[in-house]
Amino acid sequence: MWKVSLHLFALVCASAVAEFEVPDATIEAYSPEGLKVSIPDVDGIKLFAFHGKVNEEMEGREAGTFSSDVTRAKDGSWTFYDPNAKLSVGDTLYYWTFADYYDGENKLGYVKEDQEFTVTVRLCVIFQIEYSATMVVILNILLFNFFCGFSEAGLSVTEVSGSLTTKRKLKSGQLIFEDNFDVFDSYKWQHEPNGNSHLKEFQWYTNSSRNSYVENGILHIKPTLYNETGTDPINEPNFYPIRSARISTEDLFAFKYGFVEINAKIPSGDWLFPALWMMPSEGTYTKVWPLCGEIDIMEAAGNKNLTNSQQEPIGQQRVSSTLHWGPSRALDRWRLTFITKNDPSSFSSTFRKYQLQWSPQGLTFFVDGEESGTISTPDGGFWNLGNFNGTGFANPWINGTNLAPFDQKFFLIINLAVGGTSYFSDNSVNAGGKPWQNNSPNASADFWNARSQWLPTWNPESDDSHFQIDYVRVWAL
After folding, report:
1. Which of 160, 297, 299, 475 has the fewest CB atoms lying closer than 10 Å?
2. CA angle 469, 472, 477 (to 5 degrees)
3. DSSP three-state, residue 473
């Protein structure tokens, strides 16, 4: 005899009031044990309830094996968590959810029935220590392997390559790359001069010590003007008015899976565009972008008061993490894997730790040990997530894992770009306006001709416009 949920009484006449739908639940199964079910904290929800069974369909609105009321939201979510639940890959969870919703006049109950979820991966419980972001890193790595069982005899799932690497068999928690920038170490980094990018930015990268140097244990990437004579440029599409630097570990150090921590201070100044990111080292699937994949650990804008068309701050008050992937530039599905984190006090005011935990189960981004967001390995892989069937392109990731193209070795890149015809939207709002249009054939010259507007915001006589890096560290999982 199955039990009937006590929430049924609250459903009476709910449809007669303002429409409301219980938000879709996010479900995570953990290894070796644990089940988390959550919905976002939508304004008006006063209670959330979850009822479910494993590998057995629910009989109507029965209470189920899992039956719990959540009476308070936390950290933006209503969350049910059972630390003792044991689910395996392939198990199906049948469930229904309920929410008490107050529309300002009435509080009524709403239900979402006949739901199911099949476990494709089991995640690892992440432990955090509030007082130490670095301790979070170490515990994440050790507990990841201990609980998830990816490694045997203490060995790690992390793989490395490059001239800098010597040990091929790694242990969990092993520090596999570190640079504290006491000097500029050419055995760890190489400049990538005389290069622009697919974003058609306005800088030209150099290996000059004017644009990159180490001082007092800090790497500085400094933007400078293309000359100091004040001579106006000829309007032409290939004019680059700014000099800057981009360094990478290409051919020197690359890795697959690990924990990255970069302590950095983003620059302050209009249209500055710093980035900490990664690209594939071997072209396992292809070297064509974005089909090859790109991992952006941190990107930001240096503008102090930049907002989007919704008047949301998108300058120094926001950093983002992104995956780029897709069969062509037009089909880059980065918007599906785009994470932002906000700080009203600005990310340029001090050094912050930008972190990435990258495992076969997905990628989680952190700032100072606080999670910004997770991109889990998608069911059916990124090709299905991007809905690329029928686009006329062949799937080069078909022989990879569901994480492809993010299941290959990547190398690290640090650079400071300026402007460009992609990153800064024409709809963005900035004091004095945006001095170029992205479709202009002379965008870089338009930018240069407005230097009286943006150059003072760089405060060139100080370090404000410098992208500063304290250290870079990578651990094996």
Report:
1. 299
2. 155
3. strand
Can you list the residues of the chain whose pLDDT is less than 70?
1-18, 32, 121-154, 167-168, 194-199, 228-237
Contact 372, 341 (CB under 8 A): yes
Q: Which candidate, 58, 65, 51, places its Cα nearest to that of 109?
A: 51
Contacts of 440 (CB under 8 A, 6+ apart): 421, 446
pTM as predicted = 0.71
Q: From CA 6, how far away is CA 164, in angstroms rounded?
A: 63
pLDDT digits (tens, 9 = 90+) for 97-149: 999 998 888 888 899 999 999 887 666 544 343 344 555 555 555 555 555 54
User: CB under 8 Å to 191, separation ≥6 — which residues?
Assistant: 205, 206, 207, 212, 245, 246, 247
Token reading at 346: 């600005």
The CATH superfamily of 6-119 is: Beta-1,3-glucan-recognition protein, N-terminal domain (2.60.40.2140)
Nearest in space to 267 (alpha carbons), one of 469, 454, 466, 424: 466
**pLDDT tens digits for range 277-293:** 999 999 899 999 999 99
* pLDDT score at 330: 95
With H, G, I as helix, E, B as strand and everything else as coil, classify residue 299: strand
Which residues, at least 6 apart from 254, have a Cβ–Cβ distance to it below 8 Å?
Answer: 160, 161, 162, 281, 282, 409, 410, 411
Residue pointed to by tokens 């009822």: 51
CATH 2.60.120.200 domain locations along the chain: 125-475
Q: Alpha-carbon dihedral of residues 327, 330, 332, 338, nearest 10 degrees?
A: -170
102: Cβ contacts below 8 Å, ≥ 6 apart: 44, 46
Top CATH class of 125-475 equals mainly beta
Q: Which amino acid is residue 468, in one-letter code?
A: Q
Report the alpha-carbon distance of residue 109 to residue 106 in Å, rounded.
10
State the span(s) of the chain assigned CATH 2.60.40.2140.
6-119
**Confidence (pLDDT) at 202:** 92
* 304 contacts 454 by C-beta, under 8 angstroms: no
